[in-house]
Amino acid sequence: MLVAACGSGQVGQSGSGDKPGGDSANSKKLALVPGVQAEPFYISMQCGAQEEAKKLGYELTTQAPQKFDAAMQTSIVNAMGSNPPAALLIAPTDDQAMLAPIQQVHNRGTKIVEVDTSLKDKSVAVSSVSSDNAEGGKLAAQTMAKLVGDKPGSVLVLDTIAGTSTTAARAKGFEDELKNHPNLKSVGIQFTQNEPDQAASKVTAALASTPDLVGIFATNLNTGEGAATGLRNAGKIGKVNLVGFDASPSEVDGLKKGEYQALIAQDPAQIGTKGVDQAVAALEGKPTERDLTAQLHSITKDDLDANSKYFYKQSC
Ligand code: T6T
């Protein structure tokens, strides 16, 4: 587990029994628990959150699991124990398995704000801030249809892990929009466990079984990186369109090299900023918004430079 790539110390180290959010040692403490450590999407989100927390006079600490894994994330949340922060900003790695640990922290008085992913149960968090992921999937399908043109063919969708709210919504948004483009036929959604190697193998298998494969939609950074590897290994770079999600340095590099034909970039810093605003509003008794979205941007090689502000960071 990693502590704060861009800042301060551990969550919940000072005295025990404080009442979160009350007039206590922890009343100005916010904790951020992203989906996984050392990943440009979550680092960029953390940068936005940290800056906003500082501006508003709060202290934000970050602790992320080594892998996008509910058991690892549960350990971090459980370790907050009797000394929880005033507010917890969290990207639940599983829309059901993370309910019990988050609920426990909530029961101790901590305000919960979901950033990026969310739980199925809408009763725990005061606010959820994310991209409009269904809209992102739709945008990806429209981009794919434009890239493929009138040519009929099959497309493959690479999802991450079942129970990841964001990528599930992207995959569904893509499949729904595909119905408006009858030339394109989906060969279905494949799970990759968010492992690039598994994504690469799925692409290798799809290329072998589907000779008319014209496109792949990779629903996040790892699936995209794996898909590019699968295409490279088969000598299919540029022959099969790859539309990725996110804009990590390696994906942007892949777009420049022609491995990807388009990327749907999120604005993770904005998610972090808005998440902190919601947490602070909840703590200060001000109105909050239950669901907030951050903007998405479709980027191709032709408009790369104009969109460089959306590229993700490796550090703050
Ligand atoms: O796409 C992001 C994030 O939105 C998603 O929930 C999980 O994957 C990423 O972190 C990128 O790897």
Structural descriptors:
316 residues; alpha/beta; 7-stranded mixed beta sheet; elongated
Write a brief caption for the model.
This protein has 316 residues and is of the alpha/beta class. 37% of the residues lie in helices and 21% in strands.
Strand order of the largest sheet: 1-3-2-4-5-6-12
Low-confidence stretches: 1-18
Our Rg estimate from Cα atoms comes to 20 Å
Number of helices: 9
What fraction strand?
A: 15-25%
Principal-axes shape call: elongated
* Oligomeric state of the chains present here: single chain
Helix content: 25-40%
| Count of β-strands | 13
Q: What is the succession of H and E elements?
A: EEHEHEHEEHEHEHEHEHEHEE
Please outline the major beta sheet. Answer: 7 strands, mixed
Calculate the mean pLDDT score and round it. 93
Supply the helix-strand structural class: alpha/beta
Bound molecules: alpha-D-tagatopyranose
Report, as a whole number of angstroms, the end-to-end distance. 19 Å
How would you portray this structure in words?
The strands form 2 sheets. Strands 1-3-2-4-5-6-12 form a 7-stranded mixed β-sheet, with helices on both faces. Helix 1 (40-55) packs parallel to helix 9 (268-283) and helix 6 (196-209) crosses helix 7. 37% of the residues lie in helices and 21% in strands. It is built from 9 helices and 13 strands. With 316 residues, the chain is of the alpha/beta class. The chain has helices spanning 40-55, 70-78, 99-107, 133-148, 165-178, 196-209, 221-233, 249-257, 268-283, and strands at 2-3, 29-33, 59-64, 87-90, 111-115, 127-131, 153-159, 184-191, 213-218, 241-245, 262-265, 291-294, 297-300. The two termini are 19 Å apart. Alpha-D-tagatopyranose is lined by residues 35, 39, 41-42, 116-117, 164, 166-167, 220-222, 245-246.
